[in-house]
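Example protein as discussed:

>
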Amino acid sequence: MARVKPKRHGVVTDMTAMCDVAFLLLTFFILTTQFKKPDVEQIKPPSSISEKILPDASLMSVNVTPGGKFYFQPVENGTERIQLLENMGQKYGVSFTDAEKVAFTKVQAIGVPMTQLKSYLDLPEDEQKAFKGAPGVPMDSTNKQLVDWIQQSLAINPDYKLAIKGDVNTEYPKVKSLFEGLRDIDFLKFWLITSQEGKTE
């Protein structure tokens, strides 16, 4: 008598748990990813072979355009930004409204002298982004506002780090004035942003 073969059943895999994990990971990366902000002006840094990664936290930066204009980017902390603005206002005798302080927490970079900062902060956010012809933050032997921004930031948090990004075509005397200003406040440790050799920024 022939043996009866048992009927084969297909294997059913429950994918519910896998889908849950996938969506949890996706949500995590969406909430924690920090996108790189575009530069206020197009800057092409010099190349190097260094592969060190900039720290993400407590980082302020200075961008130097090909024409030698300086832009200062404070740290992202909104409360500390307001404190920084108040400190600079006291130093230069400029008072800011609450609305201007809130606007300052959202600016991408500072590219105007203190005398023009109030009018810049009063602009709508979209006009700030489209603002052209900014003179840059003054930095020379007679007017060292850029160093003052850095010094007042360090007064709020001495652990702040500084990164400097200059264009490959920026003339050295322009950057030298910044280096000398940092030396004057005894701030000698900072990062220089470069692009890796063989790669485009």
Notes: The two ends are 78 Å apart (CA to CA). Residues 16-32 form the longest helix (17 residues). The helical segments are 16-32, 78-92, 98-104, 114-121, 125-129, 145-156, 172-184.
